[in-house]
Specification:
Layout: H1 16-27, E1 30-37, H2 39-46, E2 55-61
Antiparallel strand pairs: 1-2
């Protein structure tokens, strides 16, 4: 069987900026969006028991992949100027 495409995957990383640089440098993936998840959602969805848990979600586009689509769920995302600029 040959894989032609896939929708998405989740990768947990300890350093978001390093993740962005790696996937950009090695695979040519462009960061197209980023969103900070509210602490209450991190607690409920991921089962994290901490006072102020955090989760930053980044979307990368694989070269040759489908174009980005807008949806109502993307309103909380910030558009990203370019990979490698750093995130606080």
């Amino acid at each position: 069987m040959n894989v032609r495409s896939f929708s998405h995957c989740g990768i947990t990383v300890s350093d978001f900026n390093r993740f962005v640089r790696f996937y950009s440098d090695v695979f040519g993936c462009r960061l197209v969006g980023v969103s900070d998840t509210p602490p209450e959602r991190v607690r409920a969805f991921f089962g994290v028991d901490a006072p102020m848990p955090s989760c930053k979600i980044g979307w990368v586009r694989v070269p040759g992949g489908p174009s980005s689509r807008s949806s109502s769920s993307s309103r909380s995302c910030r558009r990203v100027p370019s990979p490698g600029t750093g995130w606080a």
